[in-house]
Design brief:
The chain has 6 helices and no strands. The chain is an all-alpha fold. The chain has a single domain, classed as lambda repressor-like DNA-binding domains (434 Repressor (Amino-terminal Domain), Orthogonal Bundle), CATH 1.10.260. It is elongated. About 10% of the residues are buried. This is HTH cro/C1-type domain-containing protein.
């Protein structure tokens, strides 16, 4: 699920208006609306405020936002898919090397 859909679902699940969330997060209502419509992506600071307001896990939210930033910037296409595979391979290698260093 993308961040905009998640944000809207959280807000509607609490029966809150954009105005209420804007006041609670100190984020402009228009900007929150753009997040929900997937026209903008929040900054890390804005994401922290949203996570705190809705009492959701910040790390999980940041992971979702990082993925969305990549998609927003590069699109969903074969090149992005292959690049993501290269990143995945690099992390597997990093994880393996990290575990080997800890064992020695």
């Amino acid at each position: 699920m993308d961040f905009g859909t998640k944000l809207k679902g959280l807000r509607q699940g609490r029966n809150e208006t954009l105005h209420t969330v804007a006041v609670g997060t100190n984020i402009d209502m228009t900007l929150l609306s753009k997040f929900e419509r997937k026209e903008r992506i929040p900054t890390d600071e804005q994401a922290k405020r949203i996570a705190k307001y809705f009492k959701i896990d910040l790390q999980e939210l940041m992971i979702e936002l990082t993925a969305q930033k990549i998609i927003f910037e590069y699109g969903l296409n074969d090149t992005t898919y292959e690049a993501a595979n290269l990143v995945r391979e690099a992390f597997v290698e990093y994880s393996t090397n990290s575990k080997e260093k800890k064992a020695t």
